[in-house]
Amino acid sequence: MTDEAAVSRSEPEPPAPERYYAERVSPPSGTEGISLAELQEAMNEGARQSWRLVGVFNDPTGWGVILVWDQQGFISG
Q1: Which of 18, 50, 51, 66 is least enclosed by beta carbons within 10 angstroms?
Q2: Measured between alpha carbons, how far apart are the two ends of the chain, in Å?
Q3: E-strand spans in 3-64?
Q4: Looking at residue 11, what DSSP letter applies?
């Protein structure tokens, strides 16, 4: 469950993803933190698209986490 509408209007529009995609997962309005179920749902959605999760970071704004996906599904090398 992502909340892209929560992105501040003053924040510049990110460039279109090429291989890697950053997805912000934010808690529902009026709650603190992300539930394990919400995080699992976001990861399942990426897996349904055959993406590979390559990183998880705390959102610098303090509102959730950022999942980094490899949209090609495989790490080369």
Answers
A1: 18
A2: 31
A3: 20-25, 52-58
A4: S
